[in-house]
Specification:
Length: 505
Amino acid sequence: MSRRFASLGGAIVAAALIASPGWTQGPTELPACGGRLATAEASVHLPIAHWSLAAVRRAEGLGLLEEPVAPRRTLTRATVARLLCQAERRAADQPSWAAELAEGWVARFAEEFGPAEALRAAPRAGYAYQKGLVAPGLGEFAPERTGPLPLGDWNGIESGVELSVQGGRHLAAAVAPEAFGRDLRLNVGELAVGAGAFSLSLGRQSVGYGATEGGGVVLSGAEPFDALQFETTRALRLPGVLGWLGPVDGQMVLSRFEEARHPGAPYFWGASGAIHPHPRLTLAVHRAALFGGERSELPITPKNLWLMLIGEVHDRKNFENQVVSVEGRLRLPTESVLPLTLYLEWGSEDAAGAWRDVPGRVVGAFVPRVPGVNALALGAEYASFRPSCCGNPPWYRHVGFPGSWAKESQPLGHPLGGEGQEWLLYGRVELFEARFEIAGRGYRRNRGEENLYAPERAGASTGGALDARWRWGPRTDVRLVAEAERGRGWTAGRLGAAVEVYRFW
């Protein structure tokens, strides 16, 4: 595989997903779980850490879904509602623990979003604390290259409200301002239109690719940004002989990074395409690029954009910086002994031969049900990003884009931040018909000197995170979030506790 091959493949997948007029698709009516969940074709995206996204992945691992799940880190509300309905329907013929779990997911989702919301408000208030956190550094070479950029320590009251409205079947909108003390920010502001299996949205939203737990090689979605996004909301079949590929799905995003981190305000483009040749197998290509902007030596023309898509724009002109990965996910036929899903994402950073000489890899295994402890799901993951060599640049850095592969205070790619390794163990337990859940992870990291957090945070570190949620009463959630990481001479952490309620009109 060469960079040209991967780039051209990504361009072909993206073009096919958008240009094919002969798609066949399933019925546009969504199963409504007996009228408990909304059936609109347009809906906004769920927050990337929402509990229901993990529920969908667990349902997929248990074989409870009737259709494949797109390998993206967030999905629309309507998509998740449809998938949870499928899980409830299939689980009815499974052991009682599976039926109770799936019924709990649907009941919890219905309480939170309602059957056909006209106007929804979800106010939240709590306490937050953070200390020792840093943002990725800047620049590829000295003197522009910096170490990590410190974020201010903070503690106090945090509050916010998510307001969303459904305008019939084809229009939806949401906005979610948040306040930290006197600081106000907008994490979500989205307008979505949809028809059939397609959705177009505009606004501030998270975009992430890959079904890994720790984070994707190309886009992890940690920092929302203003973007135009086009996607399929259910997998479709291509016409004719292309039908042998199985159901396909895709997404494309376009943005511009107008912030101090990215001088010259470069544009940002991303695309993800997946095929599902077998109900147990998903294969995907993810790709994204920073391009153009006032610092570029080449203008944005149809020719240069096409050359970027096929991987032929010369890097010395500083027109683009790309990251690409391929992903595979396989659910093994071992349910009678141990349900197990294996996955691999293999990435390349902007140069021919980089996929071989300096790859970025995430490999993992997920057990959606531990035998004897049905409420528990466990997984393990290993991530590795090689240092630069053989004419290939360091991960997530580019001389023409000194802001690095990051947005504001978060890396766009894997949270490790480039060169290094991460060993990750993660788990989730769901009790009382999924009304109480605890998700946890522990990790060991070793960052190299080319890492976005080096040199101050190069070397070994150990950390962990906890996310506990309790559906305390009807339409009321209590949540506790904590994370800490310690290395040689430094410690970073955050803590938050909040109550969120859901109301409809």
